[in-house]
Batch of 4 targets.
Target 1
Amino acid sequence: MRYCGIDVSAKASNQQLVTLHERRGTDGQTELVATFYAPGDVDAVVRTVLGFGRGGVVVGIDAPSGPRLDLLAPGEPLRDQLALPAGRYERSRVCDALLFQRRLPLYPVPAMGQALSQWETWMTQGFALFDALADLGVYRPDTAGVVSAPVGDGAVRNGRVVETYPDAVFCALLGHRPSPKRTPWGLQQRIAALKLRRIIDEDGGLWHRTLDELDACAAAYAAYTLAEGTGSWVGDPREGVIVLPVAELAPSYEKLPPPERATLA
């Protein structure tokens, strides 16, 4: 089985694929061996993924699976169910609002039929990936009236292609918001989170990898937890759900306090 993670880029030729596969470590425990692929376009990534076989792959994509359906627009009954304050999250997908409430902010997703602005065009690459992999089944839990739950055993029966969000993946694994990923401490925390899940990079180690490769690796781990039944999802299945690699999300993910600094004389 290959657990695939795809980090989506606005640049057509820069879609990043990483796969994980299991092996038995020298200590008898399961390791996840990472394979990092050269960036490519949607067609090349899709050919590679489908080459593993329909029954031998689960895919996590770092992009929205589809447009917003305005399920949280003013007057919609779901707003009362979620006890959302008036004027908040009216232009959010349900999954995005549930993550925002936990201090896990995401990019806003345009509504159905709404033209994408210039900065949103990267989402078209994600939409194209979901469309091209649709035969694998886009994950939609078969629950009604529920907006978050563990994925449970046999989750891949409901689809093998999932939306995930690497920033939230790392927060969920660490239990807090790490420093920005372009800082040394933020990068170290993210790599530590992957290594603690026994993710192995045999070609020099994860410190040699780009930020895009690490995000794709996090997406692949989310796909792994879907297959293993250890992850969870948030959102409305009619609109799309986000899968994250913990059985239950914390109420909030806060930053750690800054390191102590002495006062100048």
Target 2
Amino acid sequence: MPRTITSFGNDTVKLIRSLRDRKARRETGLFLAEGLRILTEARDSGLLPEIIAFAPAGAAHPLAAEIIAATEAAGGDAIETTPDILAKMSGKDNPGLILGAYRQPATDLAAIDRSAAPLWIVAQALRDPGNLGTILRTGDATGAGGLILIDDCADPYSVEAVRASMGAVFTQAVGTATWDEFVAWLRAGPGQLVGTSLRTDSDYLDATYEAPCFLLIGNESRGLPADYENECDLRVKMPMLGRADSLNAAVAAAVIAFQVRASWR
């Protein structure tokens, strides 16, 4: 049976609240996901939280009841509490009625199976967690294997990134590496590295994409460093018809990723 927490000073409340901070996520190996839709995506991907917390109304939905029961059956901690304490845990004034603390998976490149999908998205120095989460959603929508984060990127397991992913953080593999580590790993097997760049005449609509394709997206404001572009097997650009010279990084990733898939039909 779920245990009941009614105190803001409870240690579990403090633990879940701390997961909004990157240091706490790194120390505990846990991250926070909120809302029934995202927790259902996790369950459908074979993942259950180590801690699940909910208000009474949150447990009323049949899917929520199933996830709570499955979490308890797997040895997880189920907590019934008040909406006010849930708000304390999540840091939101209007939190969902259910949330979970999940174990972070390994993110080293050795855990990435490039043969699992024909398309992978690679992001370099991506700083906005909302963009990161949106790119994870794009990866899920385009059947990509996952997202590889290069250099100093936002944390894919931050509350903001997980929320923006709408559950895709559970369906997409996530890898992290330095540029040198990534290049060594990439060149040890098959894979076409495709970079987005303004310094090319190759239109993204006319390019020939080969599987597995690794689509490389640069930093939101600076784009890709020149030496990173030089490593690419192919550089493509999207012609801009207006005054802007580029798109938001997450939007650019989505446009090109869908074109890559369309070119293989």
Target 3
Amino acid sequence: MPSVLPEKGPARLLAVATLVNMLGYGIYLAAGVLYFTRVVHLPAAQIGLGLTIAGGAGLAAGIPVGALADRRGARNVYAVTLLLGAVAMGGLCLAHGFLSFVLFAALAGAAQTSGPAARSPLIQKYGGERPAEFRGYLRAVTNLGIAGGALFAGWGIQVDTRTSYLLLISGSAVSYAACAVLIMILPAVPTIPAVGGPKWMALRDRPYLLLTALDGLMAIQYRVLTAAVPLWLIGRTDAPRWSISAVMLVNTAIVVLFQVRASKRISTLRAGADAFRRAGIAFLLSCVAISLLPGFPGPLAVAMLLGAVVVHTIGEIWHAAGGFEVSFLLAPPHAIGQYQGLFGMGLGLGIAIGPALLIALCIGWGVPGWWAVGAFFALTGLAVPPAARWAERTRLRNDLILADQRAG
């Protein structure tokens, strides 16, 4: 275990807190919709609308909460987001209709999405010389925690009673509160005074905005395995239904085992941008392979599917590692939270629009749709290196101007 865990101290405590939080989040992801259906007795249309509103609340909260963490201290602000998550989960246990469901689901969405932005200065401080690499480690921990939470949620789903679902959601609330307690044990991170520029400088940083948009477009790939592939397997191929679970198991295992290793090899802005390019090519290859599955018998289709999942997950690891490196290196030290909040907004938007877009193209259009989606990912990846070079030139020019102003 010592070779797997970070060194003793704040980094290890932050990793443990992330695992505790993600166990609860995994429970909510796996059991939430069923709880709203079978316990709160909401129709599917209202659940969909409420979760969409919750997603919008999460997108809107990232930048202001990140900026607040920059100014008021990341530890305390992050702990508050976790406590709000605990309140939201507890409130969902008491929800009895659409309005109360929307209120607490929106609070949960805002807390869950803004938390990483508030946590970013902690990663910058306690991540050592390579905070992006530590962020990759936390992503592996995140996937492990979500998988563990989903596995535990399977018990409540199998029992399928009001009590079992309430225990699951209340357990999620406890995990958020426990994580907040662990975070408050961390030493406080001193804020870095602003060095000039507008208050909402991230929103005026055009190269960073472009990179945020490109990362958001690439983030649609996170929905390929969870939205497009299951429908494609069931409707168009001879692959057995259990292969859907195999897809998620293979994906999670590869991310947990290899995300940190990939992040270690991506240590410069150029390497981060090139990782996007390689990720786009990997997504193109996997989409083409998945599109060909209907032409193969069941066992061969499963083998080809799992091969495509491996290629896709390698691309996912490159995409995540490249995003960590680019987003951290180009963010001013005094505005890490604000910049990470913006970058997270692009990621969240891509994940939100992904299912509808992928289902329309890959399922509605069929094989040409898969090819179009793969080409889209490849072109997006190719656009990142020149955008990163523009951002680097702009950052250097701004630093020189600021130095001249200080000298004057």
Target 4
Amino acid sequence: MDTRTRRRHSESETPAEKSSAGGLPAWLVARGLIPETSPQRAFAAATFVNQIGKGLFISGAALFFTRSVGLPVARVGFALGAAALIGLAAGVPVGHLADRRGPREVFRLAVVVQALAVAGLVFVRAVPSLIVFLCVAELAISAGTAARGPLTRALGAPNPTRYRSYLRALNNIAVGCGALAAGVVVQLDTRTAYVSLVLGTAVMFLLSAAVASRVPSVPPVRAPAEGGRWPALKDKPYVVLTVLDGIMSIQTQVLIFALPLWIIGHTQAPRWFVGASVAVNTALVVCLQVRVSRGVDNNAAAGRTARRAGAAFLLAAALIAVAAGAPGWIAVVVVVLGVIVHTVGELWHSAASFELSFGLAPEHAQGQYSGLFAIGQGLSNAVGPPLLGLVCLGWGEPGWLVMGALFLAVGQAVPLVVNWSDRLRAHQPD
């Protein structure tokens, strides 16, 4: 069934008709609280459980390595960073495997490997073994990300961006649940508690793989005979888009890295407001991500949305910078406004990024392109903290404006890359 046929079929059904097969109340579907189809709900459940495991791990892993295993903080940081960079290498080849063998099968295998690698961390006693297990886990994470992309696109048709936005909102809730559970472990601060956290993470991943078995297999799309094996790496506009999106993805580190340090070290806002600012961001993402994604259903709309995102990031950076010279309560208000504006930009960026990552990729190589696109986002996690520390925290108010201007420039460039890609594809034979 081609895309246009799926679209007509989907549009011909009402939300009540779509939900009746699953026996679920129609209003839950109509309001976007649950996905429309059973496969969508199954994959949403699998990703929700997976992200609970992620929340557990990212919130308690570093403390497990330092306080339970007894490894030095600097070496743990090096192992985590090195493993994350090595893991990026799996994206493109595993994405190619997902295109040829099916994304659901690759996703399930990647999650199982990830679970085994995480479980193996309980046997770590030295840095070399830590690096080995972390590298395997990060390679599996990268593989799962490459496979998750085309699976999300296939299940979410004819509007995969809206479905992806729903998953993103759901994932924020799941990570928060995992983080709360990890907080209990940190409070107990015992070897047994930390081991339980690690094994609990592994169990969540295995449960995710089990739930994913309810997702129907997505058949691969036959590649054209004249195409090369690695079209993603030869697609210049897409490579440029990956770089631009990687730069703009640095914004994800603004609220979780730069802003807390800025509030404590450069403003008169109370220290407790650090957690409150993150809570505001999370609440807005959960409530607005699906709504913001409406209308971002083609490349041109995604390009315009990316442009608006860049402008929002500049305005947010200016507001956060102004907070440095304001009295305590005024600083709180200004930072809240900055967080709200930044979150709006984050929502726009997420919707545009997802639409373009698939809209500019050919049908037969969605996994490979998804793996390439994830490299830019992964590198932003490695580059973001030191860059923001140097520019925003080191240069002060002017540094925030420099970063905001960088995001603005990237946003302005995205529509140009979209037009470039569309022109090249218009001259290619079907």
